[in-house]
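hey so i finally got around to running the thing on that chain from the lab meeting. sorry it took forever, my laptop kept dying and i had to restart like 3 times. anyway pasting the input first so we r on the same page abt which one it is
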Amino acid sequence: MQQYDLPTLKSFITVADAGGFSRAAEQMGTSTAAISRRVAALEQALGIQLFRRTTRRIDLTEAGHQFYADVVNVFHMLEEAEERVRVGRERVSGLIRVAAPLSFGIQRLAPLLPAFMQRHPDLKIQLLLEDRYTDLVAEGIDVALRIGTLADSTLIARRIAPVARVFCASPAYLEAHGVPESPQDLSRHCCLEYSQRGSREDWGAVFGVPADRLQIHGNLVANNAEVLKECAIQGMGITLLPDFVVQDALADGRLRQVLAHCHPEPFGLHAVRPSSRMVPARVRLFIDYMSEALGGVAAASA
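ok and heres what got predicted. didnt touch it at all, straight out
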């Protein structure tokens, strides 16, 4: 039987997950040339081609897929063995790569991190804040915090908290255009809409009204809540946002809540992670901490 070293096998897995040598090298903190040499040596030792390489992409061969599944299982068993040995004997250590939406990361996640880091001083966190759906596997993310309806996938999700939402606009806008008293009144207003992955939310569905009975109009669609908040403050129109985004502006009067009696269905805040048989202790601790810190009070005041 061939002798394989763990860095070589880990390099193979990372290239397959990341979809390329450069990304794999970045995630492993080494050079592209070193990763390429390891994979080439592995293919030579096995006597098979593990990847199909083209100028644009790299894909696993049929044999590569089988070898990948088997090697991943080996690493899972090693991680489980290590976890069993370490439990109760030493502090949890290592790196956690976390992805989260920009506004939520700044306003809710960042204030919670110092206490978590003090509780676990041997842990390191790499935080990626952006308003797109990060590819967890390709980018080596351990856990992502996501708000909203989750798409069906092979990812594992744990609901952390509800996230309340409010309709709001500036006092100046409401004075000039009137205060909507019912969902149907929104058809006479400029509505500032949030869009994720090219899809807008159906405001009619928020009220349980068929789309053909509630026509929403507006001149701004954005994939960032802070942009919509600022434009609402500047008097551009009415927007629907998570309350943690607008609570400061509601408190100081820059925005006013409207249609408060309608109670839009709260979004869910979820911790999402790649599917595997085992969750590393450091990731489990982070998810448990987020649930403890946010679960009782929601991501805001739901």
